[in-house]
Amino acid sequence: MNRFAALIDALVFMPSRNGKIRLLVEHFATTPDPDRGWALAALTGALTFREAKPAAIRELAATRVDPDLLALSYDYVGDLAETVALIWPERPERANSLPPSLNEVVEGLQAAKRGQVMGLVEGWLDTLDSSGRFALLKLITGALRIGVSARLAKTALAEWGRAARPEVSVDDVEEVWHGLTAPYPELFAWLEGRVERPASGSGAGFRPMMLSHPLEEEDRAALDPAAYAAEWKWDGIRVQLVARGGERRLYSRTGDDVSGAFPDIVDHMSFDAVLDGELLVARDGVVAPFNDLQQRLNRKTVTAQMLRDGPAWVRLYDILFDGDEDLRGLSFVERRARLERWYGAVQPRRMDLSPLVPFDRWDELVALREGARENGIEGLMLKRRDSAYLAGRPKGPWFKWKRGALTLDTVMMYAQRGHGKRSSYYSDYTFGVWRGEELVPVGKAYSGFTDAELIELDRWVRNHTTRRYGPVREVEAGLVLEVAFDSVHPSNRHKSGLAMRFPRIHRIRWDKPAHEADRLETLAAMVVG
Amino acid sequence: MSAAHQSNPDRPHPDKWIKVLPEGLYVEPGGFYIDPVRPVERAVVTHGHSDHARPGNRHVLATPGTLAIMRQRMGEGVGGSLQALEYDESLRIGDVAVRLVPAGHVLGSAQVVMEHAGSRVVVSGDYKRRLDRTCAPFEPVPCDVFVTEATFGLPVFRHPPDLGEVQKLLHSMALFPERSHVVGVYALGKCQRLITLLRAAGYDRPIWLHGALEPLCRLYGSLGVELGELRPATVAAKEDLKGALVLAPPAAVADRWARRLADPVVAMASGWMRVRQRARQRGVELPLVISDHADWDELCQTLEDVGAPEVWVTHGREEALVHYATSRGIRARALALIGFEDEDSEGVTGGAAGGEAS
Ligand SMILES: [Zn+2]
Ligand SMILES: [Zn+2]
């Protein structure tokens, strides 16, 4: 547990992705089985056991600490797990009460019956130091969110594994890992070169997805329209549906298991296949704005009301397995035919086929793409008719061709220091548009400019600060930022009532007076649906 | 004992002769203030941090160490006459017998022990209880009223062993050998203490200093504190600072100054680093819980050690300590002295000049 706690502590404070990878690599290299496997499972949300409620933890702490002091401390710290971790009395060291290993904790919790959890936790808290207590309390409340995605963990595993197996890619790790269960001893043994690659393919694991490249204008000129099929790119999230041997799973593009949040899809996966599609919210066949889908993401459980208000739907793109038959080596055209046949035979509920868009010449597609402003369409996908389903992002077979971004002239309102390498620069900007005589914030962006522009922006912020709030500076209404974004939706979380999707700085309009920036009405008129 | 005080006119309760005035804590029968926040005729200064030692007083009494620090930091503005009082020597000021006793906070730091009309009152100034090679250790003095600080007066503040924190820093330097490590430290006390901790842990490479830290390190060196090889970071080439250990004032580490460093790991040595959220707000990647103040357990232990039936709390998080003391049968109250900075504000007001240590 101590090693795990040290890893958690270091990850909590590490701003950079590369730094996180380095910490994980070191952990895998220096921590024995099964603890490193449990750590991997804990970080990627693959552990399940009876969780503890915050109220129970507070009650437990009040048996050891003056309740008034506990309350004053909680007020100051603001996070219950951290407060209890810090305030729990240290015991003098005793030779016969070593802190538990992560393995003991996980196995203990998995075996615990209702009513036994807090007793176990109390015993562990007495033997751990404050970092260990923090890690334990975060673990048992299911709140271990420290910025490690499944993808990041796999990247670290591959990087570490390349010491013994130079040929290993992230996709290899992904495929092998998903066939296994925590604490993954075979995975570590394979990456250390001690055993052959474990077999995959039979389980309900994730298969690495095939991803596309953005289509540049100059690419398109070189492409033969006859070699490509086109289909709509839907504005939801890419998912993989896996129904194998009685198990059903819904995975995100990065291999995160999102089944729990979408029982209305999983309930209808009464087939044996692996499919690729777009997860959407749709009412009576009409796709709802992305915001509606957002309400249902990142939830461990869903309420009946959420299922009623935002019914999920999957629009199918591809088929990877039909029963035991691996179709990934077939061409797109062949797989498409298999998908249509499969769909006709199975007729799954809450799913439909994403239609192909017939065309002969590129200019026909250009017109279609510009015309497609309705909800749910992000642009077009181009797929080589003869392309096999390959893991990762090979250049050439698949392109995404997004419809043009929307742009708006906004005024910088606040600037905040960035993270990691950028922590000495004001690199995160909140911008607004005019409503009457006042500016209302409509979004935040921290990308889209060069390093040289960042230096200029930083200087501008420092010279035009009107007020400071900790790491945030309020600036004069004097700099116009042309912002590009994919779409805009109503939102009750923003003062302006609108939320942009994927805003980024498009151009810095040093030349433009602030009063000529856009007005809120202009943005409101860009809302679709 | 304190009940007896109140009814005996020959032994007036200390709250009759020690008062909180706008200038600070005033000792009436001696005619002097302790750590006044505005210029006064006569000041007794506990230690050199800028919220305790301020310029412009007519007469200043302090330890030789504190006076040397004040001269270094304030130059001409230090005040009228400076009078040195060695630890444990006694001096009569008006009707009060005054003694300065080590507080273990920074070099020269002292508690003010006062005897008047049959009562003994000890004003702690800032203090800590653990080993610090740069100053004399805290000595508990039994007294009738103990006037204590409470900077870390909440039970969540429990500073871990210093050695473990230094090992954290050395481990990070081994894990990221190509990055420089920049540690935010207060110029007076924390800087020199961290250096001695690193040296004691076996780190013998040169340590690079921000310009604002150099004068006090030189002063400590001249007063016999061995710091090993130090080099100026301000003029160093970026290449030299790869993999180097750099110390800088807290306000400089996250600011433009740090850009001269090679992809720095930003660390901060402070008792506040105990609380993760606070550390993250400061953009710290490597928090080091190293403090020059007593933690909660040490504050409580000190109340036991001095055995005072009455405790006054000067500055910090008074509420919890007053609650704790009361629950132990000690009469306790907060003095609510103003002018002593909460270290929170440091990032904004600019810590380069020193400010309060933590
Ligand atoms: Zn102080
Ligand atoms: Zn101080």
TrEMBL record, chain A:
<keyword id="KW-0227">DNA damage</keyword>
<keyword id="KW-0132">Cell division</keyword>
<dbReference type="GO" id="GO:0005524">
    <property type="term" value="F:ATP binding"/>
</dbReference>
<dbReference type="GO" id="GO:0006310">
    <property type="term" value="P:DNA recombination"/>
</dbReference>
<dbReference type="Pfam" id="PF04679">
    <property type="entry name" value="DNA_ligase_A_C"/>
</dbReference>
<dbReference type="GO" id="GO:0006260">
    <property type="term" value="P:DNA replication"/>
</dbReference>
<dbReference type="GO" id="GO:0003910">
    <property type="term" value="F:DNA ligase (ATP) activity"/>
</dbReference>
<dbReference type="InterPro" id="IPR016059">
    <property type="entry name" value="DNA_ligase_ATP-dep_CS"/>
</dbReference>
<keyword id="KW-0131">Cell cycle</keyword>
<protein>
    <recommendedName>
        <fullName>DNA ligase (ATP)</fullName>
        <ecNumber>6.5.1.1</ecNumber>
    </recommendedName>
</protein>
<dbReference type="InterPro" id="IPR036599">
    <property type="entry name" value="DNA_ligase_N_sf"/>
</dbReference>
<keyword id="KW-0479">Metal-binding</keyword>
<dbReference type="InterPro" id="IPR012309">
    <property type="entry name" value="DNA_ligase_ATP-dep_C"/>
</dbReference>
<dbReference type="InterPro" id="IPR012340">
    <property type="entry name" value="NA-bd_OB-fold"/>
</dbReference>
<dbReference type="GO" id="GO:0006281">
    <property type="term" value="P:DNA repair"/>
</dbReference>
<keyword id="KW-0067">ATP-binding</keyword>
<dbReference type="Pfam" id="PF01068">
    <property type="entry name" value="DNA_ligase_A_M"/>
</dbReference>
<dbReference type="InterPro" id="IPR050191">
    <property type="entry name" value="ATP-dep_DNA_ligase"/>
</dbReference>
<dbReference type="InterPro" id="IPR012310">
    <property type="entry name" value="DNA_ligase_ATP-dep_cent"/>
</dbReference>
<keyword id="KW-0234">DNA repair</keyword>
<dbReference type="GO" id="GO:0051301">
    <property type="term" value="P:cell division"/>
</dbReference>
<feature type="domain" description="ATP-dependent DNA ligase family profile">
    <location>
        <begin position="316"/>
        <end position="435"/>
    </location>
</feature>
From TrEMBL, chain B:
<dbReference type="GO" id="GO:0004527">
    <property type="term" value="F:exonuclease activity"/>
</dbReference>
<keyword id="KW-0436">Ligase</keyword>
<protein>
    <submittedName>
        <fullName>Ligase-associated DNA damage response exonuclease</fullName>
        <ecNumber>3.1.-.-</ecNumber>
    </submittedName>
</protein>
<dbReference type="InterPro" id="IPR026360">
    <property type="entry name" value="Xnuc_lig_assoc"/>
</dbReference>
<keyword id="KW-0378">Hydrolase</keyword>
<dbReference type="InterPro" id="IPR036866">
    <property type="entry name" value="RibonucZ/Hydroxyglut_hydro"/>
</dbReference>
<dbReference type="GO" id="GO:0016874">
    <property type="term" value="F:ligase activity"/>
</dbReference>
<keyword id="KW-0540">Nuclease</keyword>
<keyword id="KW-0269">Exonuclease</keyword>
<dbReference type="InterPro" id="IPR050698">
    <property type="entry name" value="MBL"/>
</dbReference>
<dbReference type="GO" id="GO:0004521">
    <property type="term" value="F:RNA endonuclease activity"/>
</dbReference>
